[in-house]
Amino acid sequence: SQTIHQWPATLVQPVGSPLSLECTVEGTSNPNLYWYRQAAGRGLQLLFYSVGIGQISSEVPQNLSASRPQDRQFILSSKKLLLSDSGFYLCAWGTKFDQPQHFGDGTRLSIL
Amino acid sequence: GQNIDQPTEMTATEGAIVQINCTYQTSGFNGLFWYQQHAGEAPTFLSYNVLDGLEEKGRFSSFLSRSKGYSYLLLKELQMKDSASYLCAVRDGTDSWGKLQFGAGTQVVVTP
Q1: How many A-B residue pairs are in contact by the CB < 8 A criterion?
Q2: B38 near B80, Cβ under 8 Å?
Q3: Is B41 in contact with A106 (Cβ distance < 8 A)?
Q4: CA gap A2, A27 in Å, rounded
Q5: What is the pLDDT of residues A2-50, one digit of tens each?
Q6: Which residues of B touch A32 (CB under 8 A)?
Q7: CA A27, A29, A35, A38 torsion: positive or negative?
Q8: How distant is the Cα of A61 from the closest Cα of chain B, in angstroms?
Q9: B55-62 average pLDDT score
Q10: What is the per-residue burial (b if ≥16 Cβ within 10 Å, else e) of A69-91?
Q11: Residue A98's pLDDT is what?
């Protein structure tokens, strides 16, 4: 069966510090991978998606970036965090279009 | 683009029925998903509709009318554990990468 791992579960970072969140998927090949952010009490905002190694599309302009160095690895990064980067970050994977996306457990990021 | 609307909050009694409506306006349509999200946790997949009609899964059912841009999620025999946010998500028919657009979610509160 397929599983998705995301870490860390919680992170507290000072403004201006770098960020690296990692997501890995097991049990499937060539998945579509997604990074979402959810602000408190809000819906999910798609940040990045990837359909293959090295292929990244950005949905919203921001100071975050994403990379996919391996087929089942997706990384969210920032060189300098802003206060507005606080939120709940979720990684998801999907395959066929008639199948749902499945989410990792999420990372709660607090910027101080 | 897409506009997805759902009520912010609904309250119901244990054992009752609650219907959560979702309306959408999209440039294309390729499926509608419902997710459940407990506080502080990742969303989990509940149901998928791509054709008009009702899909039933145990205590949960989901209905779709493509001509009206309308869906609902029906929760029957409510239990306390059903207290959660319910997210409606639409897959754009013009998109080839399986991206989902999420509504802000409906917080369902089940009371004893």
Answers
A1: 53
A2: no
A3: yes
A4: 4
A5: 899 999 999 999 999 999 999 999 998 889 999 999 987 778 999 999 9
A6: 97-98
A7: negative
A8: 16
A9: 95
A10: eeebebbbebeebeeebbbbbbb
A11: 67
Contact A101 B41 (CB under 8 A): no
Q: Do B43 and A90 touch (CB under 8 A)?
A: yes
Which residues on B lie below 8 Å from A25 (Cβ)? Answer: none
- The yes-or-no verdict on residue B27 having pLDDT over 90 is no
pLDDT digits (tens, 9 = 90+) for A83-108: 999 999 999 998 866 678 899 999 99
pLDDT band at B95 (very low <50, low <70, confident <90, very high): low
Query: Which tokens sit at B61?
Result: 């059912």
Structure tokens at A104: 């990792």
Q: Which of A32, A43, A90 sits opposite B97 (nearest CB)?
A: A32
Q: Output the CA–CA distances (angstroms, integers) from residue A76 to A16, A79, B45, B106, in the order listed.
A: 16, 11, 23, 28
Structure tokens at B108: 């369902």
> Strand runs (DSSP E) across chain B, as ranges?
2-5, 9-13, 18-26, 32-37, 44-49, 53-57, 60-65, 70-75, 84-91, 100-102, 106-111
CB B16 within 8 A of CB B78: yes
